[in-house]
Amino acid sequence: MNLTEYVQQVSREDFGKEFRHEAHWNRRLKTTGGRFFPRDGHLDFNPRYYEADSKIFRKIVRHELCHYHLYFEKKGYRHRDRDFKELLQAVDGVRYAPPLASFDTIFYLYSCQKCGQIYPRKRRIDTTKYCCSKCRGRLKLESKRNQSLG
């Protein structure tokens, strides 16, 4: 079963309504579980949530379907609208996607070759362009490590 068929099934089972557009995976989504596009009616979903927990993913699908159905019924489809809040509670959807423990932030650990000052960084830096802020010594990449956020 592909993603669009799965969303159609959830829509029929949980809402009693048809989903008539397409659903796509979007790996570029980082902290959100899904997105609804009113312009063309399609939905994007973060595949990491599906890989992590299928129960949470179904609740995320319900959340996006709340936006979808309310928009096409010309009711309040935004997070702040009462119609949205009531429908989301009725179908047992999640208000916010929970943080995933699988999101890893890479920390680069640089050190000064002269004085030993340590510089932890989230992004790589050009060691030919930057130097130590204390002694102006050359920086060296010591290690790359993952640290879980969740």
Task: Report on this structure.
The protein has four helices and six strands, in the order H-E-E-E-H-H-H-E-E-E. Helix 1 (3-15) crosses helix 3 and helix 3 (54-72) crosses helix 4. It has a three-stranded mixed sheet with strand order 1-3-2. Helix content is 31%, strand content 21%. It has 150 residues and is of the alpha+beta class. It is elongated.
Characteristic key phrases:
150 residues; alpha+beta; three-stranded antiparallel β-sheet; 4 helices; 6 strands
Secondary structure: elements and pairs:
Layout lengths: L2 H13 L7 E3 L8 E3 L6 E3 L1 H6 L1 H19 L9 H9 L13 E9 L5 E4 L17 E10 L2
Parallel strand pairs: 1-3
Antiparallel strand pairs: 2-3, 4-5, 4-6
Short characterization:
By secondary structure, the chain is an alpha+beta fold. It contains 4 helices and 6 strands, in the order αβββαααβββ.
Distance between the termini: 30 Å
Q: Give the H and E element order.
A: HEEEHHHEEE
In this structure, how is the largest beta sheet organized?
3 strands, mixed
Tell me how many strands there are. 6
